[in-house]
Specification:
four-stranded antiparallel β-sheet, transcription, 6 helices, Alpha-Beta Plaits, Lrp/AsnC family leucine-responsive transcriptional regulator, WH_DNA-bd_sf, 39% helix, alpha+beta, AsnC-type_HTH_dom, Arc Repressor Mutant, subunit A, 2 domains, 158 residues
Length: 158
């Protein structure tokens, strides 16, 4: 199955890549870059949004610029009975900005932003009540790669 069969043509793939790099681009500039008129680009964009391919637009905030200079990754191993309570707890903790539920030995991988080591200690202590915790400080956070046409084509080929 190729991308055309999934309803994504090369122009759609270009739009997806461009928007991941610059979500504030004007529709007319987007159209210019992909060789479409503004109305045609607008219609493509609307279709991608309606299909859920483009799930939203967000500002990228520099954590250090707002006083959150410490990032950590916390791995948690717990029992199945604590999964739902932990999910609820994580949703109520603004410091936890990403939650990944895992297979294997660890149950969760959490991405945490805090201003100080003592704030991180508070987070770790509150999480460690029902399971083993491993914490790693992030030295540098590399930019997130875009979901590009090569990856989309690979997925479509399966």
């Amino acid at each position: 199955m190729d991308t055309i069969e999934r309803g994504l043509d090369p122009t759609d793939l270009s739009i997806i890549e461009i928007l991941q790099q610059d979500g504030r681009i004007s529709v007319s500039e987007l159209g210019r870059r992909v060789g479409l008129s503004q109305p045609a680009a607008s219609e493509r964009l609307k279709r991608l949004e309606e299909r859920g391919v483009i799930a939203g637009y967000r500002a990228m905030v520099d954590p250090a610029a707002v006083g959150l200079g410490m990032m950590a990754v916390i791995r948690l191993r717990t029992t199945h009975e604590h999964i739902r309570p932990y999910l609820k707890q994580f949703s109520e903790m603004p410091e936890i900005i990403e939650v990944l539920r895992l297979t294997g030995e660890d149950c969760f991988l959490l991405k945490v932003l805090v201003p100080t080591p003592s704030d991180l200690e508070t987070i770790v202590d509150s999480i460690a009540r029902h399971g083993a915790v491993t914490t790693s400080l992030v030295l540098r956070n590399e930019p997130i790669k875009v979901i590009g046409r090569d990856l989309i084509r690979k997925a479509a080929a399966r």
